[in-house]
Amino acid sequence: MTPTPNLNIVPFVSVENMMDLVLAVGVETFLVELAAYVEEDFRRWESFDKTARIASHSPDGVIELMPTSDGKLYGFKYVNGHPKNTRTGRQTVTAFGVLADVDSGYPLLFSEMTILTALRTAATSAVAAKYLAPKGARTMALIGNGAQSEFQAIAFKALLGIDRLRLYDIDRQATERCRRNLEGMGFSVLSCSSPEEAVEGADIVTTATADKQNATILTDNMIGSSVHINAVGGDCPGKTELHRDILLRSDIFVEYPPQTRIEGEIQQLDADHPITELWQVVTGAATGRSSAAQVTLFDSVGFATEDFSALRYVRDQLVGSDRFQSLDLVADPDEPRDLFGMLLRRARLTATA
Ligand code: NAD
């Protein structure tokens, strides 16, 4: 089967099919290949339509739409962020997305993106770290051991060779679950009892906590020199993870400045504080890590092109596979303008059935 046997039937990748796809490819291989797609799209950054995501805020969370297009394909993701959801057995982040054909406007793919978001966020973090982390980095502190955490760990192992993890979460059970889930995957894992202990000797510090406030997961005294910070959890106005003093001491790399200035750690800084765009580092137009002692910070918020890359990757994986369902999503009257006639024919059909 091919993913688009009929333009009116849209391939839909369910959660179950996404899991089977990821497992068939292998989580590490999936992350490596997805990272290549993310990097390829960063390399052709200037060919994308870009806009800061459209966010609808509420007291406990946010719902966002993230659109982009490269002129041939159009993609968007629906995603939420509700840190308190885990208290009622629901996830902080869920998502789904669509890829469409720009020429006709017809959808080409509809997919779950909760798992895919965790994968693309980890792949993007690892792409950034490839250019920014200290050479020979092997140890990563991972603070916030929720849904994103194992994906981050595996991406950093696959793309950078990180094999020592120092875990910390305010919820000890989260750390234990993360440690258990990563067993047998080639990591040496230490569960830490404070964030200070977690960052000791770490070459890379990843923060992926969820709290709808200006939190201070890392203070300036916790970060020495020669460190790369991968700050994933601060991604909304009023939702940050780092003390401002760390930002003032770091060289800061971002995805799309108009979005990150609103949502990222840099919302704490003046609007003209110098930052570097990641795509420029990827293309060689800007320098990534320039000295061993430098503190680099990837102020990750997640950008639409990364979801576009992920949907593109999944669509390519579906060729020759049956890991999708066919959705009757687009109305298809025999005569394109006879939409009402189609409804009448349906009425006759159901009346005689
Ligand atoms: P989650 O709720 O599953 O996990 C968050 C974890 O952080 C929980 O285990 C919680 O106990 C822990 N935590 C909260 N406050 C803490 C603190 N002060 N110190 C240590 N641990 C703390 O959430 P998730 O799906 O793993 O997402 C993590 C964060 O990443 C969220 O804020 C989410 O919005 C963000 N996120 C960002 C991107 C991106 O592209 N940058 C993508 C997806 C998710």
CATH homologous superfamily placement of the largest domain: NAD(P)-binding Rossmann-like Domain
Shape, per Cα inertia axes: globular
CATH architecture of the largest domain: 3-Layer(aba) Sandwich
DSSP E strands, number: 17
Span between N and C termini?
31 Å
Low-confidence stretches: none
Using only C-alpha atoms, the radius of gyration works out to 22 Å
Instruction: Enumerate the strands of the largest sheet in spatial order, edge to edge or round the barrel.
Output: 9-8-7-10-12-16-14-15
Number of domains: 2
- What is the helix fraction of residues, given as a range? 25-40%
Any overview of this molecule?
- This protein is α/β, with parallel strands linked by helices.
- The chain has two domains: 9-115 and 306-352, ornithine cyclodeaminase, domain 1 (2-Layer Sandwich); 127-302, NAD(P)-binding Rossmann-like Domain (Rossmann fold).
- The protein has helices spanning 15-25, 27-43, 114-132, 149-160, 172-181, 195-199, 244-249, 257-263, 278-283, 304-318, 339-352; strands at residues 9-13, 54-58, 61-69, 73-81, 95-101, 107-112, 139-143, 164-168, 188-191, 204-207, 214-218, 227-231, 240-242, 251-254, 276-277, 295-299, 325-328.
- The strands form three sheets. Strands 9-8-7-10-12-16-14-15 form an eight-stranded parallel β-sheet. Strands 2-3-4-5-6-1-17 form a seven-stranded mixed β-sheet.
- α1 packs across α2 (27-43), α3 packs across α4 and α3 (114-132) crosses α10.
- The chain is globular.
- The relative contact order is 0.18.
- The mean pLDDT is 96.
- Bound molecules: nicotinamide-adenine-dinucleotide.
- Residues 81, 83, 86, 92-93, 117, 121, 143-148, 169-171, 174, 208-211, 215, 217, 232-233, 235, 300-302 line the site of nicotinamide-adenine-dinucleotide.
